[in-house]
Design a protein that fits this description.
mainly beta; 4-stranded antiparallel sheet; 11 strands; elongated
């Protein structure tokens, strides 16, 4: 089951428990968010396509954190003129985890994240150095 949502002028294909990076959204880390602009929805059997949006489909998520992307350098130069301009820009973004996709009575909730099992000393693979080989 997945859906296509629109936020920040871009479209994203999302499923339950996906983590996506979108343009900045207001809200604190850990707060819930609902995406109202759903363009497409499928439950594996049937595909629902909006014209342009679907009614009755809800995509819910949780804000994980806010951040800034790597710096993009805008450099302009006019040859033989000793004229150049260099500017940098860092775009703000929000990371969102999709928690639920619902349509009518059906909904797909994200399963709770499993903690990784800690490995013991006996489970670690043997390390072979080039000198001993």
């Amino acid at each position: 089951m997945f859906a296509v949502i629109k936020t920040g002028g871009k479209q994203y294909r999302v499923a339950a428990n996906d983590v996506i990076t979108v343009a900045t959204i207001e809200g604190e880390a850990g707060s819930a968010i609902n995406f109202g602009e759903v363009l497409l929805f499928t439950d594996g059997d049937a595909i629902q396509v909006g014209a342009p949006l679907l009614e009755g489909v809800t995509v819910s998520g949780e804000i994980v954190d806010h951040g800034r992307a790597k710096k993009v350098i805008a450099f302009k130069k006019r040859r033989r003129q000793n004229s150049r301009r260099k500017r940098g820009h860092r775009q703000h973004f929000t990371t969102v985890r999709i928690t639920e996709i619902g349509f009518g009575g059906k909904s797909t909730k994200a399963e709770p994240r499993k903690a990784k099992a800690s490995s013991s000393e006996g489970d670690a693979p043997a390390v072979v150095s080039p000198a001993s080989a």
